[in-house]
Amino acid sequence: MTQPERLPDFPTGGCAVVIGGSGGIGRAIAIQLAERGCDVALSYFKGSARADETASLVRSAGREAHVGQVDLREEVEVRRFVDEAAQHFGGVHTAVYAAGPYIPMRFIGQQPAAAFREVMEHDAFGCFHLVQAALPHLRKAKGSFTAIVTPAIRRYAVRDILSAAPKAAIEQLVKGLAAEEGRFGVRANAVGVGVITDGLYHALVESGDFDQRFLDASRQAMALKRLGTADEVAEGVVFLASQRARWITGQTLMIDGGYAI
Ligand SMILES: NC(=O)c1ccc[n+]([C@@H]2O[C@H](COP(=O)([O-])OP(=O)(O)OC[C@H]3O[C@@H](n4cnc5c(N)ncnc54)[C@H](OP(=O)(O)O)[C@@H]3O)[C@@H](O)[C@H]2O)c1
User: Fold this and answer.
1) Ligand 1 contacts CB of residue 67 (under 6 A)
2) Does 4 score more than 70 pLDDT?
3) Is residue 1 part of a domain?
4) How remote is the CA of residue 157 from the centroid of ligand 1, in Å?
5) Is the distance from CB of 186 to CB of 248 less than 8 angstroms?
6) Is the CB of residue 26 below 6 angstroms from any atom belonging to ligand 1?
7) How many domains does the chain have?
8) Domain CATH number, residue 138
9) Is the pTM of this model over 0.90?
10) CB of 71 closer than 6 A to ligand 1?
């Protein structure tokens, strides 16, 4: 029997855009995309030094990196960044949304409305801006969109409304995108990230939101009884973004140690 031809994971021309490339999850994704042959345009908001570190890790993996500052709340900035990336690399075949603001964990009754509004602006609207900016390029490349969400949209964790609410909106955006854009060859998927020991984790430990009791309870709630890593998350993101997942769209893959089961 002849073996079917193995397609490359990603097209040779164009680039992958990683929004949140200065963050813990975004960095792991950018590196793994580079290891699989993608040039990467990565964004930061305030962490320019961290973004430069990610860029140098992309270059160490043998690929080109382009770094830019983006405030996701500003539609024009997001569009400019994506268009510049497309111009610089000759197209955008992959867009990954791996951003989100710091989120203080409080019960809904104690959360100021302003905090809810702000997180929606950064996260839900930010992702919407990215979708609209990336779409013309993804149509041209028949490419993919992948967004980070949270398992709390399936199994709610107390005090996690500022994560669960915008990420539920983002999951719906991803499903809508998959349904509407499949006819143009564009795929869209989401990855729900459980508690991992990278990225936002450090700030949440420092603030006391992730105390020992919370971390022990989180581990206990996971089938695999351990916290994950950004690398483990990136494996799933890069798979869904790649041609290997060419018949997968509109899905949310939980990479959460079995938390949301
Ligand atoms: N780590 C976890 O355990 C976990 C679990 C579930 C879900 N998530 C979600 O996954 C996403 C990434 O998390 P992470 O752990 O990688 O967090 P992180 O290390 O804090 O990274 C967050 C990224 O988002 C960027 N960002 C924040 N606000 C922005 C804005 N208005 N405009 C543009 N960029 C903005 C940050 O930029 P700068 O740093 O340059 O300012 C950074 O690149 C977040 O939405 C988080 O809630 C994380």
Assistant:
1) no
2) no
3) no
4) 19
5) no
6) yes
7) 1
8) 3.40.50.720
9) yes
10) yes
Q: What share of the chain is helix, strand, coil (3-state, %, to 5)?
A: 50, 15, 35
Asked whether residue 261 is domain-assigned, the answer is no
The model's pLDDT over 187-242, given as tens digits with 9 standing for 90+, comes to 999 999 999 999 999 999 999 989 999 999 999 999 999 999 999 999 999 999 99
pLDDT-derived band at 7, boundaries 50, 70, 90: confident
Question: Contact, 145 vs 134, CB < 8 A?
Answer: yes
CB 37 within 8 Å of CB 93? no
Q: Is the beta carbon of 218 within 6 A of some atom in ligand 1?
A: no
Q: Determine the distance separating the centroid of ligand 1 and the alpha carbon of 147, expressed in angstroms.
A: 12
Phi-psi region of 250 (alpha: psi -120 to 50; beta: other; left: phi over 0): left
Ligand 1 pocket, residue 170 CB under 6 Å? no
User: Can you give the residue range of the structural domain that contains 205?
Assistant: 15-255
Q: How far apart are CA 160 and CA 41, in angstroms?
A: 31
